[in-house]
């Protein structure tokens, strides 16, 4: 490896860059395939195990909840032991737990193991963005981050589609095993491809320093606003996808199979997250997040109209805009946080998944007790918050020049 690559970061066009982005792509595929591997199986598990839908849904909530709780501790450990080491150990152990899932005899044990799997998976999203921020040349960081986010979207899609497809041919345990084997393959690819870290500087971990680093990041107005963007943006996104299926079944008369196919919309996010870097380079970070916020508001509002094809088209645009926004905000975190980057990235992701849990849960009450147009109005209100944040970020970015 050349001295230039070590001193300035891994540059696009080199063999090491190719290995790095494919390793992170595989990490995203494995992580989010594992995180959502039971979601498509919930109706079948409910019937087969004689449990309630709420109990079966805990196999998803346990994983995402424990992931949110463990992101910050995982990032702190990476400050001492290295990003690459945490990535490899975290994903390896999570994949092994995934292979055990089809063998457990009860829903209680399945929920417990899913919680453990989510805790172990936390090491990957907690550290991956920091690894990229430290190792990739700043000029090429947006492109690399976009590919990693694309892996997240495809991994989430595969985590739903692989078991759903296998369920047509076999029992749900075998469908779950098939999904776990896919995660294993991607995990092996990540371990084999990940370049050795060159720019990592270990530091002694103290609770006082870590607390100080977290407080320092929240005191940075731009970072605090990006954390709030993650909370509101992901909360809105999850709320829409949680309850849109009910709308399509009850209002438009679609079957559950066709409603499940709606997750293919994630491919819009796969494309947009890889293109977000080019958009930022062309018009700047501030104008990019403003444009994407406005796009999300407009497309969300269109979903209030009682028309299936318009709803699907608006959903496609909204999904693309959301993942582009997530990619842009993630890349911006790595640029603004010039030190303690692991803590900054982990705090962003903590807010991201807490928003998913809290807002996604609260939106259910609005969906249940109010008409669809009021539900859409609630989500547009949240997105207006994202727009206000984006306008403020753009203003702060101009002042820092």
Automatic annotation (TrEMBL):
<feature type="domain" description="Major facilitator superfamily (MFS) profile">
    <location>
        <begin position="1"/>
        <end position="397"/>
    </location>
</feature>
<feature type="transmembrane region" description="Helical">
    <location>
        <begin position="223"/>
        <end position="246"/>
    </location>
</feature>
<protein>
    <recommendedName>
        <fullName>Major facilitator superfamily (MFS) profile domain-containing protein</fullName>
    </recommendedName>
</protein>
<dbReference type="Pfam" id="PF07690">
    <property type="entry name" value="MFS_1"/>
</dbReference>
<feature type="transmembrane region" description="Helical">
    <location>
        <begin position="283"/>
        <end position="302"/>
    </location>
</feature>
<feature type="transmembrane region" description="Helical">
    <location>
        <begin position="86"/>
        <end position="105"/>
    </location>
</feature>
<keyword id="KW-0813">Transport</keyword>
<feature type="transmembrane region" description="Helical">
    <location>
        <begin position="175"/>
        <end position="194"/>
    </location>
</feature>
<dbReference type="InterPro" id="IPR020846">
    <property type="entry name" value="MFS_dom"/>
</dbReference>
<dbReference type="GO" id="GO:0022857">
    <property type="term" value="F:transmembrane transporter activity"/>
</dbReference>
<feature type="transmembrane region" description="Helical">
    <location>
        <begin position="372"/>
        <end position="394"/>
    </location>
</feature>
<feature type="transmembrane region" description="Helical">
    <location>
        <begin position="252"/>
        <end position="271"/>
    </location>
</feature>
<dbReference type="InterPro" id="IPR011701">
    <property type="entry name" value="MFS"/>
</dbReference>
<feature type="transmembrane region" description="Helical">
    <location>
        <begin position="347"/>
        <end position="366"/>
    </location>
</feature>
<feature type="transmembrane region" description="Helical">
    <location>
        <begin position="111"/>
        <end position="132"/>
    </location>
</feature>
<feature type="transmembrane region" description="Helical">
    <location>
        <begin position="144"/>
        <end position="163"/>
    </location>
</feature>
<keyword id="KW-0472">Membrane</keyword>
<keyword id="KW-1133">Transmembrane helix</keyword>
<keyword id="KW-1003">Cell membrane</keyword>
<keyword id="KW-0812">Transmembrane</keyword>
<dbReference type="InterPro" id="IPR036259">
    <property type="entry name" value="MFS_trans_sf"/>
</dbReference>
<feature type="transmembrane region" description="Helical">
    <location>
        <begin position="21"/>
        <end position="42"/>
    </location>
</feature>
<feature type="transmembrane region" description="Helical">
    <location>
        <begin position="54"/>
        <end position="74"/>
    </location>
</feature>
<feature type="transmembrane region" description="Helical">
    <location>
        <begin position="308"/>
        <end position="335"/>
    </location>
</feature>
<comment type="similarity">
    <text>Belongs to the major facilitator superfamily.</text>
</comment>
<dbReference type="GO" id="GO:0005886">
    <property type="term" value="C:plasma membrane"/>
</dbReference>
